[in-house]
């Protein structure tokens, strides 16, 4: 039986339903994480509902009527068209759809890298694109990890040095230990001194995941992270992502692969910049 269909025991669901709440995740103080000394302003919860105990609940991630237009002739290119969706903390969500459907654009908007032309992106009560640029950068660095199809490893840096890059602004004296721990999570601590060119494609993918998790982010965004890998390497990468999801991380995965999408516990389909299912 394929790993993708056997790893998650629960049913795959479409763009509905609930997710389990993971254990609390500590946020390091500003002196350790390079956070701005100005507190991040929290927005009022959008359309809050009452939980079983009467407490106010809200989605962990909420996109509200998000539209993204890239400038160009004849009105530009409409990449996202009035997208609204909610994602709960700890979900493993596969974003699927044909080329040009808006998947990667959605990931960059969710990843605090590309502001929408209109609409709101709210994560954990924060209206992201209403934050000052410095605080938005702090949020992205502290809360998010990114994995890309091409990995973007620096070829003249070792695996350990590549994993250390997100910690460049940290004042912690434990940076190297944290990077080695991250390599340990992906099973590559013994390859810490190797350059990317001395690693296999699957190993490079795992170094990219170690780099993404070294800051202990709450959200991991992966854009076709296994597109250029063989079957064994793909299974290794998705096993890692599933393991991180089981530990409470929220995983957002863009993929063309139906088999890869089956590793997630929820699928969101895009078509022509709209949520199709």
Helix content: 25-40%
Strand order within the widest beta sheet: 8-9-10-5-11-12
Q: Treating each run of at least 4 consecutive H or I residues as one helix, how many helices? A: 9
User: Number of DSSP strands?
Assistant: 12
Q: What form results from the Cα inertia axes?
A: globular
- Give me the secondary-structure category: alpha/beta
Mean pLDDT: 79
Largest sheet: 6 strands, mixed
Strand content: 15-25%
3D structure, described in words:
The protein is an alpha/beta fold. It has helices at residues 3-6, 30-33, 103-110, 133-143, 159-164, 175-185, 201-213, 231-246, 258-261; strands spanning 49-50, 56-57, 61-70, 77-87, 92-96, 118-123, 126-127, 144-148, 219-223, 250-254, 266-271, 274-275. The strands form 3 sheets. The protein has a 6-stranded mixed beta sheet with strand order 8-9-10-5-11-12, sandwiched between helices. A 4-stranded antiparallel beta sheet has the order 4-3-6-7, covered by helices on one side. A hairpin with a 2-residue loop joins strand 6 (118-123) and strand 7. Helix 6 packs across helix 7 (201-213) and helix 7 (201-213) runs parallel beside helix 8 (231-246). The longest helix is centred in the C-terminal third of the chain and has 16 residues, at 231-246.
Can you give keywords for this protein?
single chain; 277 residues; alpha/beta; 6-stranded mixed β-sheet; 4-stranded antiparallel β-sheet; 9 helices; 12 strands; 28% helix; globular; disordered N terminus
Summarize the structure.
This protein is an alpha/beta fold and 277 residues long.
């Amino acid at each position: 039986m394929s790993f993708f269909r056997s790893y998650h025991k629960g049913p795959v669901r479409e763009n509905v339903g609930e997710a389990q709440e993971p254990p609390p995740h500590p946020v390091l103080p500003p002196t350790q994480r390079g956070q701005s000394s100005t507190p991040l302003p929290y927005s009022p919860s959008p359309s809050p509902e009452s939980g079983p105990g009467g407490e106010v609940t809200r989605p962990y991630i909420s996109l509200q009527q998000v539209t993204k237009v890239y400038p160009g002739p004849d009105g530009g290119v409409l990449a996202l068209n009035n997208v609204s969706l909610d994602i709960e903390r700890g979900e493993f969500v596969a974003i699927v759809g044909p080329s040009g459907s808006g998947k990667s654009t959605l990931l960059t908007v969710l990843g605090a890298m590309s502001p929408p032309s209109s609409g709101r992106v709210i994560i954990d009560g924060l209206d992201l694109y209403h934050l000052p640029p410095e605080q938005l950068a702090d949020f992205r660095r502290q809360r998010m990890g990114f994995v890309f199809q091409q990995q973007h490893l620096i070829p003249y840096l070792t695996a350990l040095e590549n994993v250390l890059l997100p910690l460049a602004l940290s004042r912690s004296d434990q940076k190297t230990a944290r990077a080695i721990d991250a390599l340990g999570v992906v099973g590559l601590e013994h390859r810490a001194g190797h350059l990317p060119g001395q690693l296999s494609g699957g190993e490079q993918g795992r170094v990219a995941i170690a780099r993404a998790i070294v800051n202990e982010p709450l959200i991991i965004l992966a854009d076709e992270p296994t597109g250029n890998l063989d079957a064994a390497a793909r299974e290794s990468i998705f096993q890692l992502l599933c393991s991180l999801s089981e530990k409470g991380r929220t995983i957002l995965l863009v993929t063309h692969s139906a088999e890869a999408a089956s590793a997630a516990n929820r699928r969101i389909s895009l078509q022509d910049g709209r949520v199709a299912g």
